[in-house]
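YM 10:42: Threonine/homoserine/homoserine lactone efflux protein sequence, as discussed on the call
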Amino acid sequence: MGIGRVLGFAGATVVLVGMPGPNNLYISLRSLTQGRRAGVVSALAIETGTLVYIVVTALGLAALVQASPALFTAITITGALYLAYLGVKTLRASGAELGGIAPAPLGRVFRDGVVVNLLNPKVALFFLAFLPQFTTRGAGPDQLRTEMLLLGVGAMLIGLTLDLCYAVGADAIGRRFRSVRTTGRARNLVVATIYLGLSAFALITAL
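YM 10:58: structure's back
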């Protein structure tokens, strides 16, 4: 890969990864409601999911998904349903559970972040359609695998940097949000609305 291709990949990745989507909004949501620590854990969780995509893509399993539109649609719909589940769960929770009195354990924050990323259609499209465009034409299997790994790791590092920016920025806004005397039920409604909105976005992408 030439330096021009690498720079082009880096610039395009910053734009694509930085655009608001389920991952960015999930990180922001956690920072807004639970603080910077939860936001950073969410960012690490998101990129753990990206690491799974890198391995799967390098092994060539992504080609199977790309060859089967029905499988890709099923993954997208599953992700949308999971986000909807989180939204409904939040609506049914007591006011204190997301009102800042009893934040979600960081283990659950991490687990949900990984799942949100793995079922994010934006990430799937990135690895299926965007990443291969920057590999060397006519490269052999070993070279292609190496290039995919390097590009994937580069994308993950760029993503982690941007994710941490979202976490820190959202925490700064969240400090004011959490200091306002807002009822737990009202905060739950805000959080649930975001989750359900993400679910609707994913469904629109799939259909």
